[in-house]
TrEMBL record:
Name of the protein in its database record: Uncharacterized protein
Gene3D superfamilies listed in its UniProt record: YVTN repeat-like/Quinoprotein amine dehydrogenase (2.130.10.10)
Entry keyword Membrane: no
Keywords: Repeat, WD repeat
Length: 135
């Protein structure tokens, strides 16, 4: 060892830091996207954590609630599914009412996980109330 510091650090050493900076709003989305969209190192670090099998079509969106214990997913099968993340089981599954593929599903902020907004290729963006399911 020469005792000299390594002048050239690998960018992959800072992947987690860059993700954290993006989440804090300190790294612009475009900069993040350009840096990591083709990052082989980042892809190699990803792994399969859970396999959730219920949709019959391609899943286009997944999103956690604020607590991180419920996952909502939307699919080409036009179903919206709420998953218990800890047990990987379905809490609720229902037809979204969309006429086309679901591309986005999110929990509405400050709704105590009782409202979801979805968007679809049919151009509709409904807010779905889950009050009666979890009352």
């Amino acid at each position: 060892m020469s005792g000299r510091p390594n002048k050239r650090q690998r960018s992959s050493d800072h992947t987690v830091v860059r993700i954290w900076e993006r989440e804090l709003g300190q790294l612009p989305n475009r900069s993040f996207s350009n840096r990591f969209s083709a990052s082989e190192h980042l892809l190699n670090r990803l792994g399969l954590h859970k396999k959730l099998k219920e949709h019959t079509g391609c899943v286009n969106t997944v999103s956690f609630n604020a607590d991180g214990d419920i996952l909502v997913s939307g699919s080409d099968d036009r179903q919206v599914i709420l998953w218990d993340w800890d047990t990987a089981t379905v809490k609720l599954s229902f037809d979204s009412g969309h006429c086309d593929n679901i591309f986005q599903a999110k929990f509405m902020p400050f709704s105590d996980d009782r409202s979801i907004v979805t968007s679809s290729a049919d151009g509709q963006v409904p807010t779905l109330s889950l009050f009666f399911f979890f009352a």
